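Task: fold both queries, return tokens.
Query 1:
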Amino acid sequence: MDNKLSIALRKAQENLSISSISEFYFYGLSLKPRAYNPSFHVTIEFVTKAFLSLLHPDECNDQLMHKIKGGYFNKKKVAFQLNESESVATELKKKGTFRYKGEIDFYLHRQLPEERNPFVRVPLKRANLDLHTKIIMKDFKLYLNGEKDESLYADPLFRALRVKDQVLFIENFAELWYHEGQIFSLPLFEN
């Protein structure tokens, strides 16, 4: 295991790209250490973030990591019109949470603009806002996976999320996409 991980680490270092960094990250997460080591996967994430800061020092490291986890770079970006986007964004700014049509919860967290990393001397740049989404009902998740009938959900956002090879760009609100049982989101609005 150590030898294969070293090879993956060297490959990511020599060929610094989103593809090689993603490959290292997912390979590292797939490994199980010989002895119980709860910090192993955390270390893999720290090393991945260090690589991302070398590749794109001016971009928000947490958002790049989010994009890697959600397969963002393998999807096409599509403009999407959501009529409720302003009201959802306003409610998120006020309360920090919003439930969209009983199926998706949005959570908005304010965070420090810097993050420390033991493998990098300077703090890593982070976005001021972090937007999380959570699927509420199991039936809705089955619908997004294509295991439930399309006619059950008429909302245009739900239908668009069901297309797995696209990222929905909703102006002044967020980028949303569905990947492996989870809805990923990046905020596009300011405090």
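Query 1 returned. Query 2:
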Amino acid sequence: MEANLTRLKMDKDFLANLEKEKKEALKNEDIVKLYDVLDTYLALDMDEEDIDLLYQKILEKAFDTLADMLTKGEVFDISKDSDLYTARAIYEHALERWDRKEYKGANELFLILSYVIGDESLQRGMFLALGLTAKKVSLDEFIQNYVDHEKLDENSLFFDKFTKKGEEFLKSERDLINKELKKIEKLSGASQ
């Protein structure tokens, strides 16, 4: 695998095509294509500035789309790639904030995602993250103790398979999670 990646990094035709795809994805602001290019850049350990540029454009597009959806009262249709990748971007950003111990910001993003994710399994994942960030449990502890790695597909974009401890948390902390979910009513009331 490593040898193939090294070959690709030296393949001028491949790199020229990748650059063309990057410019096209940035121009069209296509979140799926942006992620395809970003994932390739990450796999090949390419230039950090390009990676940052792609990720920033992904976040801009995702949050613009989210704002539009919230205004229209829509939810993500995860069967559509554009919705799936928009949800992925917001979720990854929430995980980054959680990792930096920005519990309030991460919690707010998980709260919003819990309302706009149109998939029950993913929604449960948002509920667990919502409760854990409210309790200021670290991201590392979440990943180590609450995520069932054996049940996760290697291509999973979300942590939505839980250990017994994760399932127990969802049950035992139902009141806390419901309290957190009620915050959306305050947010929606404040914007009117």
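Both queries returned. Flag for query 2: The radius of gyration is 18 Å.
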